[in-house]
UniProtKB/TrEMBL annotation:
UniProt cross-references to Gene3D superfamilies, sorted A to Z: Lipoprotein like domain
Record's protein name: LPS-assembly lipoprotein
First and last residue of the signal peptide: none
GO cellular component: outer membrane
Species: Paroceanicella profunda
Entry's Gene Ontology BP terms: Gram-negative-bacterium-type cell outer membrane assembly
């Protein structure tokens, strides 16, 4: 009998119980569980300025919208204010024989600062990055739509990474 023909080993109740006890003993706790510091931040962070260049564009709107949907609208006075700056660079990767670029790689970086409203001193700050790519076809319209989609994906991923970083540090934030 070969390894691929053997039936899977049954998981005994004792093994399952020991596994759960070991997981509980290591200090693991769900990030968004009942009573967790990260859950207490829901609806307590106001999304402030999001800058990328001179004027807001589709990417800053997508980033801000994703943050607002995930963080919730503050009811009353928010505990924190989140300001961000986004930078995106585009690099041509594939060049055809006629010297036309057919594939682009986008790199997005978001630098964020969490402050208490009314103060200038940040309580938490950081930088996150994300990557995406799109193909440039013979159609200008299709290429532009692909570029917008890649920028939207980066904006939403950057926002999600910022939220995760803040949630991971929620118990260290001042109350």
């Amino acid at each position: 009998m070969s390894w691929s023909e053997r039936p899977p080993l049954p998981l005994s109740r004792r093994g399952l119980l020991l596994g759960l006890l070991a997981l509980g003993g290591c200090g693991f706790r769900p990030m968004y569980g009942e009573g967790s510091p990260a859950r207490a931040l829901q609806g307590r962070i106001a999304v402030g300025d999001v800058t990328r260049g001179e004027t807001p564009d589709r990417m800053t709107y997508a980033y801000r919208d994703h943050l607002r949907r995930r963080l919730g609208a503050p009811e009353g006075a928010p505990r924190y204010r989140l300001d961000s700056r986004i930078r995106v660079t585009s690099t041509g990767l594939a060049i055809a024989e006629d010297n036309a670029t057919t594939r682009y790689n986008l790199t997005g970086v978001a630098t964020f600062t969490l402050t208490v409203p009314g103060t200038a001193e940040p309580v938490f700050s950081g930088t996150v990055d994300s990557y995406s790519a799109y193909s440039a076809t013979g159609s200008v319209y299709a290429t532009r739509i692909a570029q917008r989609d890649a920028e939207r994906r980066i904006a939403e991923d950057l926002a999600e990474r910022v939220i995760t970083r803040i949630a991971a540090q929620a118990d260290a934030l001042p109350t």
